[in-house]
Fold this protein.
Amino acid sequence: MSSNLTLRPAQPSDVPALFNLIKALAEYEKLSHAVTGSVDALNKHLFGDRSYVEAILAEYAGQAVGFALFFHNYSTFLTKPGIYLEDLFVLPEYRRQGIGKELLGYLARLAVERDCGRLEWSVLDWNEPAIAFYRRMGASVLPDWRICRVEGDAIAILAAKG
């Protein structure tokens, strides 16, 4: 990999650039309409009194060109923490230069350091380039699992049923 590439944990001053990369990811996934968050909320969740997520920033020649945003989950069967990669994104003009591979490697090393039993993530079923990339990196795409989600007003409705 080029010596022009730097991977590092995001700092509070990186949040605006990170949020711009999140918007670029949403555009790539044709989900720009789904971005309802803000720079302030992202900053609070990364660096507030209780952090919910962590982020790794990829910089090429000093410019933010990619990121990995992740958090810990837990495996009851392994009785170990895991890392769930919420998003991995590299700007299109910087792809095929090994940046995604470096980001995944960084997270794998972090998982080893933190004694995690798993590093896992989801991928959209139409995103064949990403699926092929993840398989090349050694990931299994699990055929029998589906994501379940409750969001928005449905959370309050579910909460009232309990």
Remarks:
- Residues 27 and 33 are 9 Å apart (CA to CA).
